[in-house]
Amino acid sequence: MLENFLDNIKAFVEGFKNQSTSAIELQLHEMENSFALVCFGSLMGMPSPPNYLGMALLPYIEQEIKVMIFKSERLDDRLAEFFDLSDI
Q1: Is residue 81 pLDDT above 70, yes or no?
Q2: Do residues 49 and 38 touch, judged by C-beta distance below 8 A?
Q3: What are the extents of the domains in the chain?
Q4: For range 55-59, the mean pLDDT
Q5: Is the distance from CB of 48 to CB of 42 less than 8 angstroms?
Q6: Three-state secondary structure readout of the chain
Q7: φ/ψ of residue 7, rounded to 5
Q8: 7/1 Cα distance (integer angstroms)
Q9: What sign has the CA pseudo-torsion 5, 6, 7, 9?
Q10: Angstrom distance (rounded) from CA 73 to CA 35
Q11: Is residue 88 very low, low, confident or very high in pLDDT (cuts 50, 70, 90)?
């Protein structure tokens, strides 16, 4: 009986750790997005930080730059290509 209770407590703690970890990962992802928005806000018309500050932050946003380039290379409008090919 006591062993079953301890197993239940261990399962509860493990589930709590997993849920906490996923919440922290989500928060980290959102903070990375905010950080990239601050550094590259000029692309969206937002004021950007001074150049020297952007250059100082550049090593920390290497991954965000890679993701941004990867996503921008894959951006295309398939529907527009279809209508362009079909001369509609």
Answers
A1: no
A2: yes
A3: 2-85
A4: 79
A5: yes
A6: CHHHHHHHHHHHHHHHHHHHHHHHHHHHHHHHHHHHHHHCHHHHCCCCCCHHHHHHHHHHHHHHHHHHHHHHHCCCCHHHHHHHHCCC
A7: -65, -40
A8: 10
A9: positive
A10: 21
A11: low
